[in-house]
Amino acid sequence: MDSEGPGAADAARNDPLVQLSLDQLRRRTSMKWRAFPGDVLPLWVAEMDVPLAPAVAAALHEAVSLGDTGYPYGRAYAEALAAFARERWHWDGLRVEHTAIVPDVMMGVVELLRLVTEPGDAVVVCSPVYPPFYAFVSHDGREVVEAPLGPGLRIDPDALEEAFVRARGDGRRGAAFLMSNPHNPTGVVHTRAELAAVAELARRHRVRVVSDEIHAPLVLAGASFTPFLSVPGAENGLAVTSASKAWNLAGLKAAVAFAGPEAAADLRRLPEEVSHGPSHLGVIAHTAALRSGREWLDDLLTGLDANRRLLGQLVEQHLPGVGYRPPEATYLAWLDCTALGLHDDAADGPGVVSELAGPARMFLDRARVALSSGHVFGTGGAGCVRLNFATSPAVLREAVERMGRAIADR
Ligand SMILES: Cc1ncc(COP(=O)(O)O)c(C=O)c1O
């Protein structure tokens, strides 16, 4: 430590990723820590091993001490998001009057898709992508059309255009593109030019864009986030975001949907009952995070950046043949294990544990490390795993060392 100087020591002291012991984390009752047996290191679902940001904890404590546990009201969350967007993304275009509070990001996505498509219409996604994009869209009676990512795991404009043409075909009335911006699971941050090309293609093919921007506050050093609605041509776009990923608040339900100027009338058609879903404590927590949790977020991003680099070293040292492209955003690493030659056909069926196949199944069985199985992310996902590195460097090191031994002992 000494050789890294006092700056590094300060960063480590403030890093939310090193505050909790494994014993403390194992007392948690959420999905990450309970779905697998106690000898498994869980680096799968997108929860972080951090304590609550102090500003969020204080807001929740105050609400609890007041008994302020009724229904949500007002625009404080949207106002806090608009101020955050101005400061962080230099974007002044988030109009509070063009927003709606929704229960969470995925329910927001479904409701926005309902505004611009009909049952039987197609929704385009760029695969591999966050698995609920498939499940929620098809559960709501829309057909998923894939536009596989291209070189560098970036959006491929030709594949997207081809998917838009298919989505508009067969006499369908509407079509939408559900975009992950930044992209889960690759951590790619779409550039302004890429987003402008998406907007142009979407307009030309009369496809409406719904941008899922839940990972936007988690852009790491070296990249910068562009809100889809800030690019020219995206005025008829819709988006949804939340403080839930960046401040680890998934259990405190709330999110904000927002519309470009040409989509504001669509958003006004959102049924009133959708606003009954978000939790008042969720709205309080998310608002406090965006308003007063920015320093905590900066400390987190510093820790994630260090873990992203550490993971690169560990993969090189312990996981020969495994491909790792450091993410530009998120705390998710997409590891290409296809060279290990493990097939994904061992899945036992749906369910958190039984759906693991191929390399994720091998790492669970032999390394006792839980990762997300690539094949559930759609075309292009087979043979890959997603690793959540929002944990301490010690846990990350232990997990990758175990994975390395599992590969070596095969
Ligand atoms: C791209 C993306 N969208 C949505 C979600 C889920 O958000 P919520 O819990 O608010 O529905 C996640 C969670 O990891 C995600 O990665």
Number of helices: 14
List low-confidence stretches.
1-5
User: What overall form do the CA principal axes indicate?
Assistant: globular
Gyration radius from CA atoms, angstroms: 21 Å
Order of helical and strand elements: HHHEHHEHEHEHEHEEEHHHEEHEEEH
Structural class, judged by helices and strands?
alpha/beta
Task: Give the ligands present.
Answer: pyridoxal-5'-phosphate
Strand content: 5-15%
Summarize the biggest pleated sheet. 7 strands, mixed
The average pLDDT score comes to: 95
How much helix is in the residues?
25-40%
Largest sheet, spatial ordering of strands? 2-8-7-6-5-3-4
Ends distance: 36 Å
Number of strands: 13
Describe what this molecule looks like in 3D:
With 410 residues, the chain is of the alpha/beta class. Helix content is 39%, strand content 12%. It has helices at residues 5-14, 22-26, 31-34, 54-66, 76-89, 105-116, 132-139, 157-168, 192-204, 264-268, 280-292, 294-318, 358-367, 393-408; strands spanning 41-42, 99-102, 122-125, 143-146, 175-180, 208-212, 238-241, 255-259, 323-324, 332-336, 369-370, 372-373, 384-388. The strands form 3 sheets. It has a 7-stranded mixed β-sheet, with helices on both faces. The longest helix is centred in the last third of the chain and has 25 residues, at 294-318. The two termini are 36 Å apart. Mean pLDDT is 95; it is low at 1-5.
